[in-house]
Amino acid sequence: MTKTIQPMTEGAIWKRITLFALPLLLGNLFQQLYNTIDSLIVGNFLGSTALAAVSSSGSLIFMLIGFLSGMSSGAGVITARFFGAGHTKDLRRAVHTTVAFGLAASAVMTAVGVLLSPHILLWMNTPESVLPEAVAYLRIYFAGSVGVVMYNIFVGILQAVGDGRHPLYYLMLSSAVNLVLDLWFIEGLRTGVGGAALATVISQILSAALCMVQLMRTKEAYRLDLRQLRFDPAILRQILRIGLPSGAQNSIIAFSNVVVQSNVNAFGEMAMAGYGAYSKVEGFAFLPINSFTLALTTFVGQNLGAARTDRTRQGARFGIFATALLAEAIGVVVFLFAPQFIAAFDATPAVVVFGIGKARTAALFYCLLAYSHAVAAVLRGAGKAMAPMIVMMVFWCAVRVVFLTVTVPLTHSIQMVYWVYPLTWSLSSVVFFFYYRRGHWTTYG
């Protein structure tokens, strides 16, 4: 019998948020292992050029998937709100509209990714030596993008009702499958970077299928019935009202990262490999941020849905503080052990030097990144998705692009690329601080 999911509107605040965030942290850890395992195996078995090909694909993948992830987070806010308020009929409509949207979006994602990948990689100044393998990796990845899209949709629903346990189990299994397939395809069958992409696609489809089965077999109000899949216009409008700004925010940030990656590409294969290796390390460092921010969004959505404003404020304060503190502690570890972390992916001296340069420029500023993400999560949970979108569009996109456009041609130094992140994290944190202190976010909508 399925265990009843308890809402986050009762119990000790720190305990509910932390216990909800912990399985999310472990789940994010295993999700991060997908691309990290690819990079580790590719870098060690296929060399720096292949690692550069996989690394150069990361920004483009996030740009396209980030939009749909933002949309699923918007759907999660609506789901959490109905769950917290006990509106079972609206909850069912939200679940089925969200899944229908995910299926339609998967088809669009596949077409766009497969058709446009070569053109965008050329625009990103991807070196000719890397281009064929990068195109192969991306096209296979996007051909199977239904797995990653629907996984995000299903997990968004489960997390919105407070179930972080089942997604964790499924990710643990699919990560193990990914590791085995990576080794088999790359070392056993000699399929190159295309094998790494295929292993990731198969593993993601597996985890999505397991999440779907869990939603179909639960006895709770959010049970998925494939016969009821349809677009409910009123629910879809609510999802779009929150999801579109969140999706646009993710895509805007990802677009700026594509611009950053194009600047890195101009410094050659070793810079691409070193920067890519650091990005994998950074992905693990950001896991506590992602976990606590997801927990915060769910907590705020459920408690505002239940009209518990004071509890919402207390939970927001705890979540923001815990996220920033934990992120900074991890930043110190990354700063100190950067050489060992980078060399695990590629021990080529030039690659390690580039990776260390990035790590020791950004790591001690992780607390600012965490603060910005945490406040943005609180605002999204409260239905105020426009504010974080505007702040991040200005600082994490416009300022980054202008800064790089001006400084890199003048200095011809990759350090300018490294410093653009701490600079923009600092600026967004200042704006978020004053916006949060005003306190107008506690009214939903």
Account of the protein in words:
This protein has 445 residues and is an all-alpha fold. It is built from 15 helices and no strands. Helix 9 (269-285) crosses helix 12 (349-362), helix 11 packs across helix 13 (366-381) and helix 13 crosses helix 15. The model has no long low-confidence stretch (mean pLDDT 85).
Q: What class, by secondary structure content?
A: mainly alpha
| Largest sheet descriptor | none
Distance between the termini: 36 Å
Number of alpha- plus pi-helical segments: 15
Question: Judging from the principal axes of the Cα atoms, what is the shape?
Answer: globular
Radius of gyration: 21 Å
Amount of helix: over 70%
- How many individual β-strands? 0
What is the H-and-E element order? Answer: HHHHHHHHHHHHHHH
How much of the residues is beta strand, in percent?
under 5%
Please tell me the overall pLDDT: 85
Low-confidence stretches: none
